[in-house]
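Pilot study result, target chain (190 residues):
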Amino acid sequence: MAENDRIGRIIRAYYNGEELDFTTIFSLCSPPLYRFSLALLQDGAEAEQVVQETLLRFFVLIREGSFDPGRSGARSFVYRIARNLCYDLFRKRSRAKVVSLDGLPLSGNTGGEANDPERICLDKEERAAAFRAVARLVPDQKTALLLRTVDDLSYQEIAETMDTSLGNVKVLIHRVRMQLGKIRKKERDG
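Predicted structure:
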């Protein structure tokens, strides 16, 4: 996790008397935090607010000397802040269910079949079905899945982000995959 190491080096340098490089930390953290928040919230403006609030809180903790890069990875730490802020927004919305992922922009096919309209339609249909299946998951399941598949966090980083054990994360992701398989099979079978 090169980003994690780079952020940790920046923070350690700050703790050793150098100026804090907010710009680099912001540029490393913002895009993945935005994708994560948008996938959970389905609202671009709220996702931007979560990213800003997350990084503001992170910078305050760094300035106060409250964040120890040797104890916790920076990536998992900022994801934990973002996750908690998203969950706070869910509670404010007074909904028990997370909104659908159907509004996410679908990425295009990057393979050699990029110009085949039938393949493109099938790919879009498959992605849309996957998004519908993910939308049925509870927030913790969706968080774990997004952190693993979209943001490519390790199981250990997900455990730190979700403030749980490594074993629990492995079980959670296994159960999510099993549940998604059942949902997709149910959709295909009718």
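One observation from the pilot: Residues 2 and 121 are 36 Å apart (CA to CA). A full batch analysis is planned for the follow-on phase.
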